[in-house]
Every structure is written in C-alpha cells, then in structure tokens.
C-alpha cells in the first residue's frame, strides 16, 4: 500500500495570527464629519479595500519589538488621517447624503498574519 500523500496548505495561504484595534494617538482628534463628494458616491456600494503587505523577517527577528512599533506607527498616522478610523453614515436630517463620521473612541482594525512558504 502506498504511503498517504503529505498534506500542505496552499502556497498562498495566510493564517491570521492576531487582530488589534488601534485608535488615533493622543491628543485625540475632535468629533468630525466629512461629507462625501460626488466622486465618493461612486464607491459607496463597493466592497472595502483590503491591503496585504508582506514583510520578510530574518530568522532571528524580534517580533515582540516589531509589532508594538507597527501599532504605534499606525496610531500616530491615524492622528493625522483620522477619517480612516471613522464610520460611514447617513448625514443627520438627510435622506440621501452620506458622510464619514469620526468621534473619539473609533478605531481602525489591524490584522497580522503569517505565511509559510511550502516547497512544491
């Protein structure tokens, strides 16, 4: 009887290691609403954009130091680009006007994954 073939996940499989919610760094931006423009409306019903960035780490890389630095960098970037942590909503008192609304406490999601390069 032939040995059972080895099972490996697909070469492009990514395993989610953890998920973190990151808020803008202190001082928090004030509550703000940005109305969508005519050009934004086109994308209103499109699925959200998801980016995957791959970083090759050395075998001895200290991920316990790298991951907190990445979270801190995202938090500092969100202080300036706080609408990225906002929520899309129908503008109050309107039936067809949308806006991007941010209030302190809103967060952006960050996921960390790992990918194993399996030999073929």
How would you describe the overall organization of this protein?
Strands 2-4-3 form a 3-stranded antiparallel sheet, with no helix packed on it. A two-stranded antiparallel ribbon has the order 1-5. It has one domain (15-114): Chloramphenicol acetyltransferase-like domain (Chloramphenicol Acetyltransferase, 2-Layer Sandwich), CATH 3.30.559. It has 2 helices and 5 strands, in the order E-E-H-H-E-E-E. By secondary structure, it is an alpha+beta fold. GO terms for molecular function: acyltransferase activity, transferring groups other than amino-acyl groups. Pfam families: Transferase. InterPro entries: CAT-like_dom_sf, Plant_metabolite_acyltrans.
Let me know the number of strands: 5
N to C succession of SSEs: EEHHEEE
Q: Could you estimate the helical fraction of the residues in percent?
A: 10-25%
The mean pLDDT is 79
Largest sheet: 3 strands, antiparallel
GO molecular function, one term: acyltransferase activity, transferring groups other than amino-acyl groups
Pfam family, one: Transferase
Keywords: Acyltransferase, Transferase
């Amino acid at each position: 009887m032939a040995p059972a073939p080895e099972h490996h996940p697909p070469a492009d499989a990514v395993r989610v290691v953890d998920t973190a919610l990151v808020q803008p760094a202190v001082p928090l931006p004030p509550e703000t609403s940005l109305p969508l423009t005519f050009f934004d409306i086109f994308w209103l019903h499109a699925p959200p954009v998801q980016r995957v960035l791959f970083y090759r780490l050395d075998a001895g890389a200290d991920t316990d130091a790298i991951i907190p630095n990445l979270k801190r960098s995202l938090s500092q970037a969100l202080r300036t680009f706080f609408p990225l942590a906002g929520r899309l909503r129908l503008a109050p008192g309107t039936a067809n006007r949308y806006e991007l609304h941010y209030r302190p406490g809103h967060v952006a999601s960050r996921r960390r994954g790992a990918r194993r390069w399996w030999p073929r």
